[in-house]
């Protein structure tokens, strides 16, 4: 049919009960009825100064400059905005400046929707059922044509399709509501994560200051500690350290006493020799009382010595054994005690080795705290590490570092969450629920994939690998101006959401690939078509319920309506 596809439903009155009254002239639509009330005269609608007799209405002669005297004929079709370009041969005005008062010939279409038909189509010998299902525009039966009234069938089919469309719209709206709900929940989770992180960071700030102070205090007090290297480990080890020092002192004293004894023994021997000599060489006949008494005392001393003393003899070999340096083969092997670095505290630490790895860090922290507490309260001895840093200082430093690391990672997580919350996820935050999900479609030699708020990809069906067509940047709005498609899978006319994906894989000798993803409301998410208007600049047309109108749930008032 010649007009199919170019027809425009003019001023459709979406209610079949609104029809022009019987008394009105043919072709007058309901909204113009008031101009045609039965009067002897008729004033042109757009030019009321031009007054005609009522009999001039629909007399097939265009008398009004705006054509309003011919609502039911094609006589004024030349000034009809829907007619071909002016001026036409026979045009009254000869200009295109005239504005037609009426939008067209009114077809009441009872049983369907009333609509206007361009005046040019009136009595042109063609049934225009798309606009005039009752066939009333061919009332003159030009060339014998008779256009039967098909409004019942056409109206019924239209209502069926309309019902289908309405149901689909409802399903789309329902899915949209589900997405909005999911998005709200996701937003709520990010918000509560942010609140929790802010609290934790605040606590960690305080904790960091406390731990810094504690670390400095511990470091200071540890620097002044006396019991260090010798007395490693627990109380036993301290005792061993003290005993070793004591034994060394005693051995030193014994050594000196022995030297003194030997000196004294020398002296005694020399004195005995003198007295022995005196006894042997003195003159008993010489009456010297002093010499006689000395000899007598010597004889008594010598007699006592010869009878043997009951005193225990100190055996030199034994003393020499005692004086030998302690080591593995003699005396006490101190190393057995001192070199054993396993301290009482280590026993506590070793418990960790038996734990599963996921619990180890947590338990380590707790044990560290317990251990420090025990050391501070004198229950455990401190255990200097090989670095020379005491365990107490190490523990304080590690706890401080752990708090700092925790603070830094939580600060980063907070920044990420705040940025995430500030991102544009479209009306009602709806794309938050879709983020990371993908839809794809086979077009030509490629499979094209759209991942919401992530990237677009061109996948070769011949196994040439995937090409990034852009990474998500932002959401824009643009006007679409395309014919509606019969299957509804097209952008149509009106404002549409456009997702920009930029900076994809570089194009051979060209810019980086980018994609504009145009969205139109649909029941299911689907990539309808992909085109490459310029090299490596792609346009994806996608149906999704995320792009549907923000319609409220039936029976539920929106907040601002209350
Ligand atoms: C590939 C595809 C095409 C693109 C050319 C550019 O073949 O990504 O879409 O036009 O590269 O060289």
UniProtKB/TrEMBL annotation:
Gene3D superfamilies: Mannose-6-phosphate receptor binding domain
Superkingdom in the source lineage: Eukaryota
Coiled coil location: 180-221, 247-281
Residues in the signal sequence: 1-21
Any one Pfam family match given in the protein's UniProt record, by short name: PRKCSH_1
Ranges of residues in domain MRH: 436-550
Source taxonomy: Eukaryota, Fungi, Dikarya, Ascomycota, Pezizomycotina
Cellular component, GO, one term: glucosidase II complex
Name of the protein in its database record: Glucosidase 2 subunit beta
GO process terms (BP): N-glycan processing
InterPro entries: Gtb1-like, Man6P_isomerase_rcpt-bd_dom_sf, MRH_dom, PRKCSH, PRKCSH_N
Keyword list, A-Z: Coiled coil, Disulfide bond, Endoplasmic reticulum, Signal
